[in-house]
Amino acid sequence: MSSDEEMPNQEESQNEDLQLAFVTMLEVYKIILDKKMTPPVKSAKDKALKEFTETYNRNTKQNLDAKQVLKKVNNMKRGVTAFTSQDVDI
After folding, report:
1. What are the domain boundaries of the chain?
2. How many CB atoms lie within 10 A of CB 32?
3. Strand, coil or helix: what is 88?
4. Among the four 11, 59, 70, 87, which has the fewest Cβ within 10 Å?
């Protein structure tokens, strides 16, 4: 097997590891997923998002900002919604 064939598998594995790390950390910072926008919740979300971003970047050697993290979370929620809506028969 050539090293060219192994590279995509290594990249896939690395992406899966990063995704798993993201989701695992998101379980700790569940407030980020909260839909409420009251001042106390918004303040807690901002603080959690800042801590999440700093910790994730430090642990994974990534350089994401808060906006990119929120985009990733929203994309994941959209994917789950699309996946679950396919399973429902009307």
Report:
1. 3-87
2. 19
3. coil
4. 87
**What string of pLDDT tens digits covers the 90 residues of the chain?**
445 555 568 888 888 888 999 999 999 999 999 999 999 999 999 999 999 999 999 999 999 999 999 999 999 988 888 888 876 655
32 with 73: CB under 8 angstroms? yes
Rounded Cα distance, 17 and 11, in Å: 10
User: Which alpha helices (DSSP H) does the chain contain, by range?
Assistant: 3-28, 39-60, 66-87
Cα of 56 vs its chain's centroid, Å: 10
Q: Is the pTM of this model over 0.90?
A: no
